[in-house]
Amino acid sequence: MTYKDKKTCKLLTVIISLVIILTACTPKSTEQMIVEQDDFVLGTVGKIRIYADDEKAGNSAIEKAYARIVAIENTMSTSIEGSDVYNINKNAGNAAVEVKEETMSVIKKAIDYKELTNDVFNIAIGRLIELWGIGKDWQKVPNEEEIQDAKNHIDITQVELSGNNVMLKDPDMLIDLGGIAKGYAVDEAARVLRENGITSGFVNMGGDVYALGSKPDGTPWNVGIQDPEIGSGDVIAKVGLIDESIVTSGDYERYFIEDGVHYHHIIDPETGSPTRNELVSVTILSQKSVDGDVLSTAVFVMGLEEGLSFIEGLEDIEAVLITKDKKMYATSGAIDRVEVLNPEFQLQK
Ligand code: AMP
Ligand code: MG
Q1: CA 74 to CA 288: how far, in whole Å?
Q2: pLDDT in the model for residue 50
Q3: Which of 275, 285, 292, 301 could form a disulfide with 247 if both were Cys (CB 3.0 to 4.6 A apart)?
Q4: Would the pTM count as exceeding 0.90?
Q5: Checking DSSP bridges between strand 201-205 and strand 97-98, what pairing results, if any?
Q6: Binding site membership of 292 for ligand 1 (Cβ less than 6 Å)
Q7: Per residue in 115-144, pLDDT tens?
Q8: Of all protein residues, whose CA lies closest to atom 3 belonging to ligand 1?
Q9: Could you tell me if 282 and 54 are in contact, meaning their C-beta atoms sit under 8 angstroms apart?
Q10: How far apart are CA 63 and CA 189, in angstroms?
């Protein structure tokens, strides 16, 4: 399959969890103009929209931001041959692999998060991700023996870090940065835009959004949270953001159905299977997308009660959780920021 073919077929399955609600907004300074570009990156349709002094400068800043995202994808993807993660996994049980400094720092952050999240966020679960293959050609429900076998190879203490080298001591282990790298890439794209003089805009990579500055009239960017009902695509609530990130993880993003059972891409390391609880989506508000990315996945696994109290205990992080019975729960710092647009979804106060 050529790259182009792959792109087209993936596009059909892409689901956007967060959308930017655009109301007419004329820049205060009349010289500024809207510049935007969409691109297929990180397995999703990305959108970057900014206000710039002129089209050329705007396009140039956006292209640099996309180039940064692609560079991160080429470094941290499990499937791109020659990426740091690909090399680490290929050399499992065999050799230490020298990685880029940023790969090392993302891996270290992910490992710290395992402890903080009571083990629910675990980048060493690659074997389970491979086994289930959600969203891949080989997706299937594995048998109990296969699950148990993969679960024997997710012990993160087997990931040895030294200098800029990473070694998986367990030859049957695989790491997967799918729950953290996209958030990191969004932060980096926002940083590149800022570095290129952009003060207003947004980066939207499907479920991971960063709102840069405010809209030119000083009002926040409005980001819509999607209806978690499969196939709906409607926006059910909105949140205003200025210089902030919003990230959503949902069970409707990547999944398959077998014998009437819905199997999705967020794995509970304890069971070795897709997480099964009352939640359908978790949205995290944070300063950085990298934290939102990890925490949206982690809180999804924790479930409603534990997830809410876990986020309440973290400074500068807020969350909005949606349950299967269409109830919305927000942490104390988010409750007054969420505007419900669909009355079927009730915000619990
Ligand atoms: P997200 O869509 O942000 O919730 O991230 C889900 C992705 O993170 C999956 O596609 C996997 O690559 C990875 N992942 C799934 N479950 C876990 C987990 N328990 N810990 C760490 N990463 C995970
Ligand atoms: Mg995530």
Answers
A1: 21
A2: 97
A3: 292
A4: yes
A5: unpaired
A6: no
A7: 999 999 999 999 999 999 988 888 999 999
A8: 179
A9: no
A10: 10
